[in-house]
């Protein structure tokens, strides 16, 4: 697992309009959409102890629940931390997804599946409560309807009754976001 260092820091790149993490030897470009960032995201901030704890938790979840490489685990976990830390809260958009009455998930399952009328996708739960969950798409993309498609690492908030467990371990392909 890629270990965080004390000199890591988040910054917003004005030229590319991207949220980035300076990781000493290289810069990680997150998939956060500039239009959805909280105002304070444009300030340079340290990769905090809380960020490192979230990173470690997300990494462990992905490593345990998906059949992916260490590099992809790190990419997913860092994007999850960035999404949770810097994205504006949004209203649920559950209407894109089918209800999952018969498929109950174990509360420890954080890698889940959602189905639209068009397609199904694999998601990581970023944050949740009894009613709603904010989820990040792990699949390469997912068509929600004729006009709307989610891209890998984009987040959406949904009702809990839209979430289904994965039937078996899955592999996730990663895209570069440079």
Report what the structure shows:
- This protein is an alpha+beta fold.
- It has two domains: 9-86, no CATH class; 94-165, no CATH class.
- Helices cover 19% and strands 27% of the residues.
- It contains two helices and eleven strands; from the N terminus they run E-E-E-E-H-H-E-E-E-E-E-E-E.
- The chain has helices at residues 49-65, 70-86, and strands at 9-13, 18-22, 27-29, 45-46, 111-115, 120-128, 132-137, 141-143, 149-151, 155-159, 164-165.
- The chain has a five-stranded antiparallel beta sheet. Strands 3-2-1-4 form a four-stranded antiparallel beta sheet, with no helix packed on it.
- Helix 1 packs across helix 2 (70-86).
- The longest helix is centred in the N-terminal third of the chain and has 17 residues, at 49-65.
- The mean pLDDT is 91.
- It holds the Pfam family ZapC_C.
Short summary:
The protein is an alpha+beta fold and 178 residues long.
Ordered list of secondary-structure elements with their pairings:
Layout (H helix, E strand, L loop, with lengths): L8 E5 L4 E5 L4 E3 L15 E2 L2 H17 L4 H17 L24 E5 L4 E9 L3 E6 L3 E3 L5 E3 L3 E5 L4 E2 L13
Antiparallel strand pairs: 1-2, 1-4, 2-3, 5-6, 5-11, 6-7, 7-10, 8-9
Helix pairs in contact: 1-2
Pfam family, one: ZapC_N
Protein name: Cell division protein ZapC domain-containing protein
Organism: Catenovulum sediminis
**Rg, nearest Å:** 16 Å
- Number of beta strands: 11
How far apart lie the N and C ends? 22 Å
> Number of helical runs?
2
Count of domain modules: 2
Biggest sheet: strand arrangement:
10-7-6-5-11
- Poorly predicted runs: none
| Shape summary | globular
Strand content: 25-35%
Backbone structural class: alpha+beta
Helix content: 10-25%
If you average the pLDDT, what whole number results? 91
List the helices and strands in order: EEEEHHEEEEEEE
Keywords: Cell cycle, Cell division
GO biological process, one term: cell division
Domain Cell-division protein ZapC N-terminal: 1-87
Protein name: Cell division protein ZapC domain-containing protein
């Amino acid at each position: 697992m890629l270990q965080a260092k004390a000199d890591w820091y988040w910054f917003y790149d004005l030229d590319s309009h991207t949220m980035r993490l300076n990781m000493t030897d290289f810069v990680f470009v997150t998939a956060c959409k500039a239009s959805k960032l909280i105002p304070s995201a444009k300030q340079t901030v340290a990769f905090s102890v809380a960020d490192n704890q979230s990173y470690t938790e997300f990494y462990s979840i992905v490593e345990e629940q998906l059949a992916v490489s260490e590099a992809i685990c790190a990419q997913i976990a860092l994007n999850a931390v960035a999404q949770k830390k810097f994205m504006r809260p949004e209203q649920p958009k559950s209407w894109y997804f089918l209800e999952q009455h018969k498929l109950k998930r174990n509360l420890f399952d954080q890698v889940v599946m959602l189905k639209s009328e068009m397609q199904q996708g694999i998601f990581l739960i970023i944050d949740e409560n009894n009613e709603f969950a904010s989820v990040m798409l792990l699949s390469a993309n997912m068509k929600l309807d004729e006009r709307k498609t989610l891209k890998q690492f984009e987040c959406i908030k949904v009702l809990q009754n839209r979430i289904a467990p994965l039937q078996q371990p899955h592999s996730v392909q990663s895209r570069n976001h440079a």
